[in-house]
Amino acid sequence: MSAGDFNDRVKAWADTVRSRSLGTLVAETQVYSGDLRGRLKAAVNKAHDDGLAHAVAFKFVRYGVFVAYGVGNGYIRLNGRVVRGSHNPNRHDPPGPIRRRPVDWLDKNVEQQMQGLADIAAEYYGDRAAEDVLEQIDRVTIVKKQH
After folding, report:
1. CA distance 38 to 24
2. Which residues pair with 81 in a beta bridge?
3. Span 11-61, pLDDT tens digits
4. Under a CB-based contact definition with an 8 Å cutoff, are residues 62 and 55 in contact?
5. CA-to-CA distance for 82 and 97, rounded, in angstroms?
6. Whole-angstrom distance, CA of residue 27 vs CA of residue 105
7. How many degrees, rounded to 5, is the angle at CA 25 between CA 32 and CA 11?
8. Helices 107-140, 3-28: inter-axial angle, 10-degree rounding
């Protein structure tokens, strides 16, 4: 596998995670996903020295964290649970039913696809290691001279 193939496959992996995350947002959130769906992006960061993909970043509006925790607009997390309220002591939120819940829209999709990324890296770096060994094999073999 070439370096370009490796980068392309890592980018395809990132796009798969992004697509699945969007699917989760569509399925799990109805009203309160805000601008999140339209602004979720996947980016592959490449090293300056060799141009190889070395990190995948998922960029989204800050609101995505609130969706993941199930908080915002009168809902907070208290002792690991979503409750009505505010961290501001001067704000009063009326009691009522809990209409929010945490939505694991990104982390679970990354975790489910992680083996695929590991396979891509193993194939590329395994190929490179094998090529390095083959290049060095002439240096470590004993050459028998003919008398």
Report:
1. 13
2. 78
3. 999 999 999 998 888 888 776 566 888 888 999 999 888 889 988 888 988
4. no
5. 11
6. 10
7. 135
8. 170
